[in-house]
Amino acid sequence: METGEGGSGGQGVTLRAVSSAVLAVTRHLSVHEVLQVIVRAAAQLLDARYAALGVPDDEGSFAEFVVEGVSDEEWERIGPLPRQHGMLAAMLHGDTPKRLADIRREPEFEGWPHAHPVLKDFLGVPIRDGEDVIGIIFLANKKRPGGFTEDDEELLTLFAAHAAIAVTNARLYEHNRELTVVAERNRMARELHDAVAQKLFSLRLTARTASALAERDPVRTVQELEQVERLAAEALAELRAVIFELRPADLTDGLVSSLRKHVEVLDRAHETTVRIAADEAVVLPEDQEAVAFRITQEALYNALRHAGARTVEVRLGTRDGQAVLEVADDGSGFDASDTAAEQQNGLGLASMRDRAYSIGGELTIDAAPGHGTTVRLEVPL
Q1: Nearest to 70 by CA among 105, 101, 112
Q2: CA 20 to 30 Å from 219, out of 47, 198, 351, 378?
Q3: pLDDT tens-digit map of 328-369
Q4: Please, is 278 exposed, middle or buried when counting C-beta atoms within 10 Å of its C-beta (0-12, 13-18, 19+)?
Q5: For residue 60, what are the contacts with CB-CB under 8 A and spacing of at least 6?
Q6: 3-state class of 216 per DSSP?
């Protein structure tokens, strides 16, 4: 491959550029973020004014269409996502890259919406997973005169092969995360059955005892009825807590607002005081906010269910270029170095650490018997 920079030194520069682009892509696990980074890296790699990546759906359009070089305002004026027609259709159903001096002169060219930028020189490469085309990446309007070269085509084809692996891995990761959520919901459903069923059974027996004692031992009857009231309250609290956990997280209003709503509900549902102190300015990418919210849910559940705490506080802020999210309680605590005890108590800390790692964060636990527990998530900003 000629690089225009002279011999093996130029090749080294090119390979380092490809390596940097591939590393930038593979750092991300969200499919949407992977697509965005692929487009941005491809544009930089080949010095293109415009870049785009389309992921086809089964209805003649695109499930995702990510662009680089077009502002949000310009994209809004352009209108709906493109359909699979013209050059896009040719790329989807073709087996080879397309490199054109002027896309407007091609038979497949069918024009653009009025607000669409004018494209001239064009390079398009299919992203393939085996025999399937899972997307198209294409570039237009090379910044240096002369258009795209054969070397550019070879370079983009190499990059597209790595991009295919990154997209497939991200899809597998998201699918696995969905399965993990289902598994957690099933676990909570089992806990709902076990905890509430046991309390309702005890409530039923206690009510029967109170009924039997009603005539001959009024004092004992009152005690049993008080026990019925206590068991009913505990069963209701269990139902509220677990059913709330089964609700899907709604992060439409952002992480801070969602945490405030969650804390408010838990504070009403439990005798334990649950409060929050959060910096409204802390904003994370969508996938990171979802993971941070789920970790907070799990930490709160542990504190309310296992710690016997009087107070639990959620804290969100920044420190040393990182977002710091903490769930701290004044409960019984535990020996954080005892892995077996952690697993026996069902705290799910390993799962929480895995979640933190998946977004490039770190989870730490500060805990000691009799001195409460602090679960801390740190995510680079």
Answers
A1: 112
A2: 198
A3: 999 988 877 765 555 444 456 777 888 888 888 999 999 888
A4: middle
A5: 83, 84
A6: coil
Looking at per-residue pLDDT, the higher value among 184 and 46 belongs to 46
User: CB 196: neighbour CB atoms within 10 A?
Assistant: 18
Residues facing residue 148 across a β-bridge = none
Handedness of CA 174, 176, 180, 183 (dihedral sign): positive
pTM over 0.70: no
Q: 214 is written with which tokens?
A: 């009603």
User: What's the CA gap between 374 and 364, in Å, rounded?
Assistant: 8
Distance between CA atoms of 293 and 173, rounded to whole angstroms?
18
Q: Three-state secondary structure along 282-333?
A: CCCCHHHHHHHHHHHHHHHHHHHHHCCCCEEEEEEEEECCEEEEEEEECCCC
For residue range 19-60, list pLDDT tens digits in order: 666 666 655 566 778 888 888 888 988 999 999 998 888 777
